[in-house]
Specification:
2 domains, two-stranded antiparallel sheet, 8 strands, binds zinc ion
């Protein structure tokens, strides 16, 4: 999956370490645990598995115990439960393994893959540069504006042809990313199979 973002396969990309991507980390979700009944009553024990490991998550109101780590749970006005990160005490919905900490507290900080797509998606910067060149030639080349296909200027026609070819390649690439995300969402039960 990460290869789809060019993280592993694109030699020229600025690499963000894959293990610091939110999407690649197992995590506890307070909403999901609530739906599963993990906070329903004192003493309820939920088995939590990730990777090869697993731990017992025991409700001990108002907290939960994950192994011997105590995690405070607070409720908002919509009766939704939130963790307080054991390290910074900030309210969060997700705690990440293996640190059992929020996104910010995990070593180096975790980030979303979507924030790194532009850095590593081939062509995005080239297209932006060519569009800027068109603007310099007096063409309205903002994204989603129709490009002049039959300009009298050879330079404009060449730039337009390059942009269209690159954008088509990009659409194909993002379609692949999209398919991967859908597949993963279905696997995790976030979308119907
Ligand atoms: Zn934290």
């Amino acid at each position: 999956m990460s290869g789809a973002f060019g993280l592993l396969t694109d030699q020229h990309a600025t690499h963000f370490p894959p293990d610091r991507l939110v999407e690649n980390r197992a995590r506890l979700c307070s909403f999901a645990l609530h739906r599963a009944g993990a906070f329903a009553a004192d003493g309820v024990v939920t088995e939590v598995r990730w990777g090869d490991g697993g731990r017992r998550l025991a409700r001990q109101a108002p907290d939960i115990l994950l192994g011997d780590i105590r995690i405070a749970v607070v409720w908002d006005e919509l009766k939704r439960p939130w963790f307080l990160c054991p390290r910074c005490q900030r309210r969060c919905r997700h705690l990440y393994f293996d640190e059992i900490a929020c996104r910010t507290c995990c070593a180096g900080g975790l980030d979303y893959a979507s924030r790194h797509v532009h850095r590593s998606t081939p062509g995005v910067h080239r297209i932006a540069r060519w569009r800027r060149q068109l603007v310099g030639l007096g063409v309205d080349a903002r994204p989603f504006e129709p490009l002049p296909m039959n300009s009298r200027s050879t330079r404009v026609r060449r730039l337009v042809a390059k942009i269209i070819a690159e954008e088509n390649a990009l659409i194909g690439h993002l379609g692949g990313v999209n398919r991967d995300l859908h597949r993963r969402a279905r696997r995790r039960g976030m979308l119907p199979k």
